[in-house]
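Case study: Large ribosomal subunit protein bL21.
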Amino acid sequence: MFAVIKTGGKQYRVVPDDVLEVGKIEGEVGSIVQLNEVLVVGGDTPVLGVPTVAGASVAVEVLDHKRGPKVIAFKKRRRKNSRRKRGYRDEITVLRVSEILTDGAKPTKGPRPKKEKVAKEPATEAAE
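Here is what the predicted structure looks like once written out:
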């Protein structure tokens, strides 16, 4: 099963367990967020939205908030000693698709537990 969602003015085709980077959305790291703007729900019998599919949503887990690559806008007018350099970095949210929901269902899966780091025990001086 797949879905086409719209967020941040862009459209994404997603399946469960996909990881994607979208424009910044609200939500703390590790929380589950529902995206309600679903344009298509595919599978055995695809459902097309007019403009969205009623009662469909996609549950996603927020993995990280970060900033995108630097974009430099440099303008120069020749022979006029005129230059302008401006730059920016987009705010990005990294998401993992948990499940695709239809008929107004609520998410059944919670956030995945964090992997615990295994701490190495300090070397003891038993080899004396």
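For the exam, be able to explain this: Residues 32 and 110 are 7 Å apart (CA to CA).
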